[in-house]
Design a protein that fits this description.
25 helices, disordered N terminus
Length: 534
């Protein structure tokens, strides 16, 4: 009974505080003589009573919205204003800053709905502030972005609300979000400076900022025509300002060029941060679709992608798409591209997670008829050599790839038509350890002597222990009248798919068995039979 009484008393106290907040709100809104009641409401908003604190925070939002609309929170434009009014204005602005600081602190609350509610109130305050000042409150918005992205306790709901409910829906929020990210990641960033400015990062950003910024940047969509403005009054009220100010503050939100520039600066600043290996790979996976097409100058990503391409391993495989997009669509000069691509072909390739992705890209990279024969021969020879040591799923892909290369580049057909030398006296084939001029250890395709070699590995694969590979390799013994293989049919094979296909395949005829049922446990004349009788 005591617990119920205690719980009922706490609930009654909460209702009393809620009623008190509503009464104080009415006093403040009805008369300026009760402005001091704002302090009591803010104290309730900072209390531990969840319901009363939420009611107080919402009431303060309505109060400050009314004060912005009446102009009481704006600074006096002249020094001749009433000293008492200036003092009241300074006090109100100080209370307003405390209120917004309280809301930013709520962005780190343990409960996601509280975080989202605090974000909504903060952006509503920015709307009223921008409407009163006639300019987007970029500093206040940057503080909100910093609190959301830099918070270690920022929930998935909070990040999604910022991206989907606000940034994606309003052009001015999207523009200033990109600028805020650029400023926070590169403190010397100036959105109105010209080209050639330096980005020297000051204090290192937190790991939480890197993680949250990546999440929100990935959810923010590019600008679409017809989007609304969050601070809708900026454009109309800027008419009283100078033309340059109006253009930079209000017009930029509607300018496609400004959005492209801000997008580019935000991503470039983000990519300079110390990314974790997982985020680094996730960025490389999507950079050719989500980032490069919307950059003002995509070549600015050259250093990032080149460094990733030269890192080796899975990172190099993931950087291929973005780097090739710069080469093919943006005229990037990368003369060592194919040499590094050739270096990626090693035994580990057939065991990595992104094997299928790599072979899809490799087929695109080697499809051009302008590539020299020695280059295609080097790749075909390397693939055939690796197929000898690859698992069945990798060997199948390599054989199909070699067949397609020879079909696309007939000048390399010499690799399967070169005849061996025979001893004139005995007529036997001459075989020596130095018979193959191909140098597998040579990193340069031009110096590997692949075009002077032959694809003898394919004949070896015709005796592979897995019959499907042996059958596939025998296609090189037939005239090249068949069309190219669809590489997609081979990329998703694994041991499991091979096992399923073999076990589920119905035999055309029953296998021949020659078994003789035993007549007993022992044969006649065995020593064991002399001692045991059944």
């Amino acid at each position: 009974m005591s617990l119920k009484r205690k719980h009922g008393g706490a609930k009654e106290e909460s209702r009393t505080l809620v009623a008190r907040v509503h009464a104080l709100e009415q006093n403040v809104l009805s008369s300026h003589q009760h402005l001091n009641d704002i302090v009591e409401i803010q104290d309730i908003a900072a209390s531990d009573d969840g319901e009363a604190a939420f009611t107080a925070a919402t009431a303060l939002g309505r109060i400050y919205a009314a004060l912005w609309a009446k102009g009481l929170l704006q600074r006096a434009k002249t020094d001749t204003a009433d000293a008492a009014a200036q003092q009241v204005g300074d006090w109100l602005r100080d209370q307003y800053r405390k209120y917004t600081a309280q809301l930013r602190a709520q962005l780190a609350h343990s409960e996601a709905p509280v975080q989202v509610a605090a974000l909504r109130l903060l952006l509503q305050m920015l709307d009223k502030e921008g409407a009163a000042l006639g300019a987007f409150p970029s500093e206040g918005f940057q503080e909100v972005v910093a609190a959301v992205l830099g918070g270690a306790r920022s929930s998935e709901h909070l990040l999604r609300a910022l991206a989907e409910s606000y940034v994606n829906s309003y052009d001015d929020l999207r523009l200033h979000f990109y600028r805020s990210v650029a400023r926070l990641a590169s403190p010397d960033y100036d959105p109105f400076a010209g080209r050639g400015r330096r980005h020297v990062r000051g204090e290192p950003v937190s790991p939480a900022f890197v993680q949250n910024a990546h999440v929100v940047l990935g959810q923010v969509r590019v600008r679409e025509a017809g989007a609304a403005l969050w601070v809708a009054q900026v454009a109309s009220q800027n008419k009283s300002q100078g033309p340059s100010q109006s253009k930079s503050q209000g017009g930029a939100a509607l300018s496609a060029a400004a959005h492209t520039r801000a997008f580019s600066e935000a991503w470039l600043a983000f990519l300079r941060l110390p990314l974790t290996p997982d985020i680094f790979k996730q960025v490389l996976l999507t950079i050719h679709k989500r980032v490069i097409p919307h950059m003002g100058d995509a070549k600015q990503l050259m250093d990032f992608l080149s460094s990733a391409y030269e890192a080796g391993g899975a990172v190099s495989l993931l950087a291929l798409n973005g780097l090739f997009t710069l080469i093919s669509e943006h005229n990037l000069n990368y003369p060592q591209f194919y040499e590094k691509l050739y270096a990626l072909l090693d035994r580990n390739l057939f065991h990595v997670k992104y094997r299928a992705r790599f072979f899809r890209l490799l087929e695109v990279f080697l499809a051009s008829s302008h590539l020299p024969a020695y280059l295609i021969a080097a790749f075909a020879k390397r693939l055939a050599r690796l197929a000898l040591f690859a698992p069945p799923a990798g060997a199948v892909t390599a054989v199909a790839m070699v067949y397609n290369l020879l079909k696309q580049h007939p000048s390399c057909m010499v690799l399967i038509h070169r005849m061996p030398e025979y001893d004139a006296a005995t007529g036997e084939e001459i075989v020596s350890s130095d018979d193959d001029p191909y140098d597998a250890a040579e990193p340069s395709p031009a110096k590997s002597c692949a075009l002077q070699s032959s694809l003898w590995e394919l004949e070896t694969l015709q005796h592979h222990y897995y019959p499907n590979i042996a059958t596939l390799a025998r296609i090189f013994n037939e005239p090249f009248h068949k069309p190219q293989f669809q590489l997609e049919d081979f990329l998703d094979h694994t041991y499991a798919t091979f096992f399923d296909s073999d076990t589920l395949r119905k035999p055309k005829k029953a296998p021949a068995l020659a078994t003789q049922p035993p007549a007993g446990l022992t044969r006649a004349g065995d020593a064991l039979g002399d001692f045991m009788a059944f």
